[in-house]
Structure prediction request, 932 residues.
Amino acid sequence: MDTAELLGLDRSVEDALPRAIEELAQMVAVASVAAKPDAPMREGAEVVATLLRARGLEARLVPTGGGPPVVFAEDRSAGVDAPTVLFYNHYDVQPAEPLELWESDPWTLRIEGDHAIARGVSDDKGHISCRLMALDALQEQNDGKLPVNVKWVIEGEEEVASIHLPAWIEANANILAADVCLWEFGGVDDAGRPEILCGLRGIAYFELHARTITYDAHSGVGGSLFPNAAWRLVWALSTLKGEDERILLPGHYDAVRPATDEDLALLAALPDTESYLKREFGLSDFLGGATGAEYQRRAVFEPTCTICGLSSGYEGAGAKTVLPANAVAKLDFRLVPDQDPETVHRSLRAHLDAHGFSDIEIRYLGGQRPGRVDPHHPLVTLAADTARAIYGKEPSLIPLVGGSGPIFPFVAGLRLPVVTCGCGYPGARVHAPNENLRLSDLVLGAKHTTRFLAALVDRGVGSSAG
Amino acid sequence: MDTAELLGLDRSVEDALPRAIEELAQMVAVASVAAKPDAPMREGAEVVATLLRARGLEARLVPTGGGPPVVFAEDRSAGVDAPTVLFYNHYDVQPAEPLELWESDPWTLRIEGDHAIARGVSDDKGHISCRLMALDALQEQNDGKLPVNVKWVIEGEEEVASIHLPAWIEANANILAADVCLWEFGGVDDAGRPEILCGLRGIAYFELHARTITYDAHSGVGGSLFPNAAWRLVWALSTLKGEDERILLPGHYDAVRPATDEDLALLAALPDTESYLKREFGLSDFLGGATGAEYQRRAVFEPTCTICGLSSGYEGAGAKTVLPANAVAKLDFRLVPDQDPETVHRSLRAHLDAHGFSDIEIRYLGGQRPGRVDPHHPLVTLAADTARAIYGKEPSLIPLVGGSGPIFPFVAGLRLPVVTCGCGYPGARVHAPNENLRLSDLVLGAKHTTRFLAALVDRGVGSSAG
Prediction:
């Protein structure tokens, strides 16, 4: 494409914004919280499928054997000589709790200047909008047709560890063949530099349940006699990680592949977000006093064990003298290559048993293996080149990010290069109250997506895929 | 009194039951949960004061300097030669949570056969009914007049450690002079034997607050870098008590006065509730495998440290990958003679500081000192004798009970013997869902109260008290 054509594409992206905002409002109005058993997941899928069909994609809701349906859509009208791109997104969102910290209803899109605010507005419904804007622009500049074949997987369980997705991908590998996968997120850092992400950590998520007596007892009666579920849980948890942050499960670090010199070089080239993060979270120091290169290495190349929630006994105001019968902890282990969640599950059980906590029940809520893409893959380079053109800044090539996602079946199962073009930024408060999206980022992310797709065509990528 | 007169009193108590049930329904309908800042405490006090006034007592609501009012009532018409009795009760109740475990609305009295069910129906509104029935019976058998002078203190903070009561008693000692104090509870054991309680443990109640970052973070971003409030709290708590139940605060056992041989003899004479408690709470063993005399000693003569509640991060269903900014534990220390709560408060702070947890904030929600009465005091013996007559069973003389209450200012400040006549039983589920009272126990407790008061007159107790 020549410069005039590219600028035409950019204008078409800008023109697509009003409709995108309207549709984003439709999407966030559905509280599709995968973690909640009664959430309107099917409605969340239907809303998304309708938006895809409006662009001429053939979209259907595919059962996943127990979980919310996967929305699978495709438009292969570009033909076998055109590139085929696989979009991966999700229509499920994190819970909105704690509700009292939201400045407006989390399920009603609020626009305030450049900011759109609602649960899921960035993670991940805004990214669905970003892709839709790219399709709108490409169709407008191409007589209503898409120059690339599009396959689109939008799952409904990303926030609960994509429980059913890996098996679904394995079973449907034949219809998912593509030249490249556009991941569900991406965007800019604190300084507005675009980020190209080349890997995700894995995760293993558990609930630990302690149950000691048939019902909560009066603490004056039972204090010396009855086992206390809260104490059992506290003692059990305290054996899992030392105050030095070292995880104490047996063999937990055995499979850890340390960062390579190349990884460290890529990290060293990244902009410094240390002061931003410290300011945002009110910290004078990171754990262990890590700074500079060591902070960047620890942030992603170290396994973690996070207590995500604790609950037991009386949690209301004031003093209730009760001895709890039940206690629950939610626990999330982030995994680095080549750890895997099933091994963590087994060693957690073995560890608790060995420390006298056979009474603690483990519920495995799901897990994902970590996955990486070669930062020098030509399509990763293409994503970086198009980002440089749109953002006017040098992109950051990030070897591994701290978050998790179902990347493993895409990179290891489908053997696809995965690239990121997106509309996120560090202040987006994903997973937290007042999640937000900058509309200017949405436009930039959509332009980057559009340019990347156009560049695939220009380069003649994948003339035999399909 | 002769036998005919005593039987007349008993009949009058029975006649008083329908009105007592009606008034109990009025009392429990007010959700006077002292732990909740917006609870209708004044309404709870008014309802009670109205019932007292209906018996001719002069009742007033006395401010306590910040807390709910104390209801103070008296009827001194019996004259200076009659005995003076001080009733101590409370109109506040424990929170009803967890609400989902109640079989009916906790704030609506439900009668099912011999059981009345509602929050506070036993602890302590049923005991107010028990005293009212005794006054009704005495008035009916005595031409509408009371043969004893009655002073009645009904506080509104017993379930939150009677924060303002000790100072109020100290300041009002002149109007509280009496010959004996009837405590707020009492009743029978599992086998229907009446219990005479001669002491209460003390308590110190705290909240521990951990706060690490400005708001909950994404666990994938912060897991390796940000201090986690839930982990800080777990690690801090785990230093407070070992898995062997030994409390690790420095000098915590220094002031503990071990049970005497006489205490142990009294405990040995008590009926065995071991199998009852184990069955009720689904336990095969008590902590440390304590049985027999050692179980009975540990149940009351050992200090305890109970986690009453834990709260942090995401506590809803499923997996939310969040790193909590805040975590709270509620902690209750039961104290034995001669421990005191202020010392525990100081040593808790010192202990946390010494273990590197200066960041953990301690909020002291209140405390009480333990207090005891001589089991051989003649009025304790009188309470036992009248119990034997009413219940037809040998009363249990209990040297110390596991629960706490504001007994210290009564026994040490006012220098009163404290005795118990009441309507409780071990299945009453006080502090738990489905709290209940057996109406037959209410009648027996009221008969016992009536007989005890009549016996004070017969023995010419307190002809100069005032």
Observations:
- Chain B touches chain A through 93 residues (CB under 8 Å).
- The two ends of chain B are 23 Å apart (CA to CA).
- The first helix of chain B runs from residue 3 to 15.
